[in-house]
Specification:
CATH superfamily of the largest domain: Hypothetical protein af1432
Number of strands: 15
Structural class: alpha/beta
CATH class of the largest domain: Mainly Alpha
Helix content: 40-55%
Shape: elongated
Number of helices: 21
Distance between the termini: 79 Å
Length: 508
């Protein structure tokens, strides 16, 4: 009797991973960031750094410190193992000032490449400036000003207008470089900064515009300012300080350093604290020379610029905020295509009711539509506050803090209603102007009508339209949707009309 045939077991075909890892070997820190996809919606799924201090002796010795090299190589071994565990699809690696300036930089890079299993691009100063500016341009809506990327070894400065970049300059004014070159003397450091920044054309072009501060040490300064000022939102990206306030703050930090009280700052990593003084010094001179209007802190920098550079041209043209909102809509909404109906429906209401809005306000309204159902999985009693937290603290680029507040409030009012006892937290309302808060209430009221009609399902709202009759606003249901016109819909529509200074009625 012939043996039974052996049945072949077919393994499922594993799709190639779309994740991309960026290993960033900086003068102060070595970092691994893993992104979900090469998309305009940049979503980091893993982020880890080790403060190695590769550049702390380069100015005086011309060498990467031996202990720093060992620490960096150990970090890279862990990062490589993490990439293997996470099954990362593509690994990119870059190195900045310390590695390009140190005589033993090539030897270190050779060892690092063997560990990482990929080539490491040693960025020139000009290329580092360009990538940093691309990062800001991708993460800031209509960026217009001077980007300053302060690392451990260097400071890159570059003019940015939208996605148009000038040629950048690089200066040896990173925190570690300044500390080393000045031998720890703030007086010497101030002279070095003054000599290199005074009359610099790139800074002179910043008058009355925005200075975009990029880099971990400047973010540490911002974190201190957020805490000391009692600012209600801990989101770093887009945090804005008027230049005069930033100048006073920088000078105050220098006085703290002189009195040896800077060490009491608990919000900053121990390894970064000594560099705060130098970061404050550089910022002080930049403000005095460039005379910007505002300082805006950006968490988008070289790594994000590198990722943006890798995108297809069509993807680059997308609005970063809209791309993120559309992704959240696809992941969290009951019927993602309902958001398209909601955009058209609110467009019509604005047009028929004669409501005015700028192009930027319309953009935010459309984003609010894509986010309007993001909280439905939360407990019904807490959808408002849960969604408020999701949006205010979300991983969004290309939006100001006021814009975040507007989006969060619009969706909050959609869930929580407009009664005084359910008013949104003052801390969030304080982030926006009174006019923006009222606009958020209006959009929230529109959402409350629309969702009551449609139950968040696509294809329902197109069966309704609006008419004007003097000061009366009329919501008309066609025959296919007439049974949806119940008392609760009427009451919500009347409430909406009152917010617009109208009376509201429904016609079936």
């Amino acid at each position: 009797m012939a043996p039974a045939p052996v049945q072949e077991r077919h393994r499922p075909v594993r799709k190639p991973s779309t994740t991309v890892a960026v290993i960033d070997i900086g003068s102060n820190s070595v970092r691994l960031v893993v992104y979900e996809n090469k998309e305009r919606n940049l979503a980091p799924v893993f982020n880890e750094k080790t403060l190695c201090g590769l550049g702390r002796e380069v100015q005086s010795t011309g060498l990467l410190a031996e202990d720093a090299v060992e620490k960096a190589l150990a970090a890279l071994k862990r990062f490589k193992a993490l990439c293997r565990v996470m099954k990362v699809g593509e690994v990119c690696a870059i190195a900045t000032a310390a590695c390009r300036d140190a005589s033993n930089g090539p030897d270190f890079i050779a060892k690092a490449e063997r560990i990482c299993g990929c080539s490491i691009e040693i960025l020139s100063g000009a290329r580092e400036a360009k990538l940093s500016a691309l990062g800001v341009a991708s993460g800031v809506y209509k960026a217009d000003g001077i980007v300053g990327d302060l690392g451990g070894g260097s400071l890159e400065l570059i003019d940015v207008r939208g996605h148009r970049l000038s040629r950048g300059v690089t200066l040896p004014l990173g925190g570690l470089a300044l500390q080393d070159a000045s031998q720890g003397s703030l007086k010497k450091a101030a002279k070095l900064v003054s000599d290199l920044l005074t009359d610099l054309p790139t800074l002179k072009a910043g008058s009355g515009r925005t200075f975009y501060a990029v880099g971990g040490t400047w973010r540490a300064l911002a974190r201190i300012h957020i805490i000391q000022s009692g600012y209600p939102l801990r989101v770093m990206h887009g945090y804005t300080i008027p230049a005069d306030d930033a100048l006073s703050f920088a000078r105050r930090l220098r006085r703290l350093a002189a009195s040896n009280t800077l060490a009491d700052v608990e919000t900053v990593a121990d390894a970064r604290r000594p560099l705060l003084t130098y970061a404050a010094l550089v910022l002080e001179y930049i403000i005095r020379i460039a005379k910007p209007k505002n300082i805006v802190f950006s968490t988008y920098g070289v790594r994000e610029g590198l990722m943006f550079e890798m995108l297809p041209e069509k993807e680059k043209q997308k609005d970063g905020l809209i791309a993120t909102a559309q992704t959240l809509n696809a992941l969290r909404s009951r019927s993602p295509r309902h958001a398209d109906d909601l955009i058209v429906w609110t467009d019509k209401l604005f047009r028929v009711a004669g409501l005015r809005e700028t192009a930027d306000e319309k953009r935010l309204r459309h984003v609010a539509c894509w986010l309007s159902d993001a909280g439905w999985r939360a407990h019904p009693d807490h959808r408002g506050e849960q969604t408020l937290n999701l949006i205010t603290n979300g991983n969004f680029g290309a939006v100001t803090h006021e814009g975040r507040a507007f989006l969060a409030l619009a969706v909050y009012y959609r869930y929580a209603g407009l009664n005084a006892e359910n008013e949104a937290p003052e801390a969030v309302r304080a982030l926006a102007s009174p006019a923006m808060v009222e606009r958020a209430r209006l959009i929230g009221a529109m959402f409350r009508v629309a969702f009551m009609i449609s139950a968040a399902q696509r294809g329902v709202l197109p069966h309704t339209h609006f008419r004007n009759q003097g000061r009366k606003l009329i919501l008309v249901f066609d025959k296919r949707a007439s049974e949806l016109a119940a008392d609760r819909v009427t009451n919500r529509f009347k409430q909406l009309a009152r917010l617009m200074g109208r009376t509201g009625t429904i016609v079936k």
